[in-house]
Amino acid sequence: MGALLYPVLSAALYYLGCRAQITAWLWSRYPPRLDRFMLCAACSGTWFGFALAAGLGYPLKIPFAGLTGAAWYTPFIVGGVTLWTTPLLAVVHIKALEVLEGKGDKP
After folding, report:
1. For 64, phi and psi rounded to 5 degrees?
2. Residue 55: C-alpha distances to residues 11, 24, 31, 51, 70 (Å)
3. CA torsion, ordered 58, 61, 65, 43, to nearest 10 deg
4. What value, to the nearest 5°, has the Cα angle with vertex 86 and ends 82 and 89?
5. Are 104 and 26 spatial neighbours (Cβ–Cβ below 8 Å)?
6. What is the three-class DSSP state of 67?
7. Is the pLDDT of residue 1 over 80?
8. Can you tell me the distance from the alpha carbon of 44 to that of 83, in angstroms, rounded to the nearest whole number?
9. Gap between the Cα atoms of 68 and 20, Å rounded
């Protein structure tokens, strides 16, 4: 369950914190350095994954790829994995939005 939960939630947080219209009131007020950081899916995705594993996974003992959720090292492993999965899921999300808008190639 955690092997899908952490990457998907990390990608969702990246989208919401980056350029979602519903959170425009938030990201439009970012200082320039934070804005550059949030636009980097790998950078912010790593920290989102770490925070999710530490904030949700540790107290709720949500496992990740065979690792126990209550281990001290699990947030670091999740952060390393979301370093790669957040940009990949962000691209899939962007392509899906383009297809829905009629701007992209249909599969």
Report:
1. -140, 110
2. 16, 25, 25, 6, 11
3. -20
4. 135
5. no
6. strand
7. no
8. 8
9. 33
> Do residues 103 and 31 make contact, with C-beta atoms less than 8 angstroms apart?
no
Give me the pLDDT at residue 83, please. Answer: 95
Give the pLDDT score at 85. Answer: 94
Residue 60 CB burial class (10 angstroms; 0-12, 13-18, ≥19): exposed
pLDDT at residue 78 greater than cutoff 90: yes
Residue 38, both tokens: 């949030």
Q: Which of 28-37, 82-91, 98-107 has the lowest mean pLDDT?
A: 98-107
| pLDDT value of residue 100 | 86
Write out pLDDT tens, residues 10-36.
999 999 998 788 999 998 999 999 999
**What residues are paired with 64 via a beta bridge?**
67
Tokens of 8: 């998907």
d(CA 13, CA 107): 26
